[in-house]
Amino acid sequence: MPLRRHWANFRCYDCTFTGSEAVDYLHELLRSNYNFGPEVTRYQTQQLLRKFFKAHVIEDVKGRHGTEEFEDNSHLYRFPTMSPLKSLPTRPSWRDDSDLPRLIRWDDYEELPQKENVAPQKSAVLTSDLWNKRHSVAIGDVHECKLIRRREVTSKQVDHIWKSMTITHLQRVLGLKTLDGILNPAPVIGKDIVVNIYNVNKTGIVVLSNKMLLTFLGLFPPGPEGNDAKQPLYPGFERDVLRTVADYYQRLKEPLLTFHLYEVFVNILSLLQEQDKATEALQVSCLLLPPPNRRRLQLLLRLMARVCHNPRLPPLNDTIGTRTLMVQMFSHCVLGSPDDMDLDELLATKLVTFMMEHHSAIFQVNAKLRCQVEEHLSHLKRAQIKYAGSDTDFSASPAFCKQIKRVDCEEQKVIGTQVPLQQLLEGLIADQELPAKDKRKRLKQFQKSYPEVYQKRFPTEESKAAVIPEKAPRLKPHLVLFNLKKPFQPFQRSWSFRA
């Protein structure tokens, strides 16, 4: 609001505005705003300013507000010095730097302020050598390592992962040991699964690049409000629309669930008594559909459910009910086998009835499957640590693990630990540069730590003596100089003594 000096009753008031100026300014502002538009009238603007006046957003020059009406004239108003909003809690200002909490860094060696009655500790500067020495003692020597990144995961690999993990999840839900004879994984396209999961709108319907729009849903709105008044109505209008929809679906070359997935959905029929399990199986199975089929199927089931739950809809057939009519009319468009069988109609009716009743849950993406696949893809893209001299290839896929018996596990554990220890012992024995004294000391430590390996290598004293040099006897000086059993003889100059 532009503010300026105004005169009233032989007095001047700075930073004020008249009622007419306020209406002019706010009216123009509202008309130019796209949230309101040019339809805003001057009277509506005046009513808004009256609400501002009562809420103490503005006040008159004498400080009054709310007791009088805001007028569109030359009366003077101003903004109050205090905000009409509630005061915000003020944070205490840190003026003394000593009160601020200080973060300790590795290169920060200053002495921290000591508490009272506590003896100050001597500050010690940890050099890099001292720091490495302390940590090498605590956690052992850490080998040099480097970060490596996996190879970039291509879109083709992402599609393959989605395909394999979805089929595996489906097999687990169906409770089958194998899908042989039920599903051939070759025709399944991983890219279709990705599209069915991610290329959806807010209502969960697949969005295609070449959008196939079905406007029939608007002709059967749910609820008591009935049809839109703008749509042309005439006797039999609803029957003509339903006949048009049925004609569209009946002209499809194959059922929406496709011939390839026929056996999969037939096996799901045995799970219909367990609603949660059957719903999960249908969630995963419908991800294998081509995106156009999934979109058509979801729109059709929504249409059937809306027609069945619309009480204001007139009868669509003179002999059978609406629910039975919808199932009979579209069941063979949803499920069917390549060979015309008498059993197909019964199976299709049973499956379509269940899918129509639970279509909202069926076309939701299975959260468990999606979480598993996304975690696996995230793991493939994650950087790894590789130590020097390690030949481990982290970019390879996880190896296949097979459960073994406990006896075999214990045998492998013994073999896996004893072989390196035997090699270590042989290397210690064959070391020629190691002094005999140090070799005997280390062999004694090895015997104490791994007695079984040591006993296996040296079963007898003879085997030990053949490999390990014996310790030479050391004469004591007083026994050499003085032998009390023999008479004393003078020393010969040819004798030599060791210190």
UniProtKB/TrEMBL annotation:
GO terms for biological process: intracellular signal transduction. It holds the Pfam family RhoGAP. Residues 177-363 form the Rho-GAP domain. InterPro entries: DEP_dom (IPR000591), Rho_GTPase_activation_prot (IPR008936), RhoGAP_dom (IPR000198), WH-like_DNA-bd_sf (IPR036388), WH_DNA-bd_sf (IPR036390). Gene3D superfamilies: Rho GTPase activation protein, Winged helix-like DNA-binding domain superfamily/Winged helix DNA-binding domain. It comes from the Eukaryota. This is Rho-GAP domain-containing protein. It comes from Xiphophorus couchianus (Monterrey platyfish).
